[in-house]
C-alpha cells in the first residue's frame, strides 16, 4: 500500500540555476548537495534535483502541484509572476498559479487540498464529476 509521495526528482540542465529557483523563489531549504545533485526541503516535500544533459520536462497536462497556505499565496505568486513564465490560466477551484521552472518543468501553486476539490464538485454537480463515497 502506498503511504505517500517519498520524493520527487527533476532532471535539470543547470544545477546552480535550479537550486536558486527552488530555494530563492519557492523558499526551499537546501539540505544536501553532491556531484550533480541536490536535495531541497519544500514543506513536507523532499525534492531532488539531478543534473542531466537530457533535462526534458513533461508535456500535456502533466505538472507538479505544491500546496501553499492562503496567507502566503499572493506574495509567492507575485514573486513568481515576475520571474517565471505562466503556462496556464487558473480554471480550478481555489487560488492557483501555473508557472514553469528554468528547465520548463510545469509547476502549480495551489491553495486547497483533495477535500476542498471534492467539496467543489459536490457543490457543482453540473460539471459532470462523480464524487465517490
From TrEMBL:
This is Catechol 2,3-dioxygenase. The keyword Oxidoreductase applies. Keywords: Dioxygenase, Oxidoreductase. The keyword Oxidoreductase applies. Residues 4-112 form the VOC domain. One of its GO terms (molecular function) is dioxygenase activity. InterPro entries: Glyas_Bleomycin-R_OHBP_Dase, Glyas_Fos-R_dOase_dom, GlyoxalaseI/FosfomycinResist, VOC_core. It comes from the Bacteria.
Amino acid at each position: 500500500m502506498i503511504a505517500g509521495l517519498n520524493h520527487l526528482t527533476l532532471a535539470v540542465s543547470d544545477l546552480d540555476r535550479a537550486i536558486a529557483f527552488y530555494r530563492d523563489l519557492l523558499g526551499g531549504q537546501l539540505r544536501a548537495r553532491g556531484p550533480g545533485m541536490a536535495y531541497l526541503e519544500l514543506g513536507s516535500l523532499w525534492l531532488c534535483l539531478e543534473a542531466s544533459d537530457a533535462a526534458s520536462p513533461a508535456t500535456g497536462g502533466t505538472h507538479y502541484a505544491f500546496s501553499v497556505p492562503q496567507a502566503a499565496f499572493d506574495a509567492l505568486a507575485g514573486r513568481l509572476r515576475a520571474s517565471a513564465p505562466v503556462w496556464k490560466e487558473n480554471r480550478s477551484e481555489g487560488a492557483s498559479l501555473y508557472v514553469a521552472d528554468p528547465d520548463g518543468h510545469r509547476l502549480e501553486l495551489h491553495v486547497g487540498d483533495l477535500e476542498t476539490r471534492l467539496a467543489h464538485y459536490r457543490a457543482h454537480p453540473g460539471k459532470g464529476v462523480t464524487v465517490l463515497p
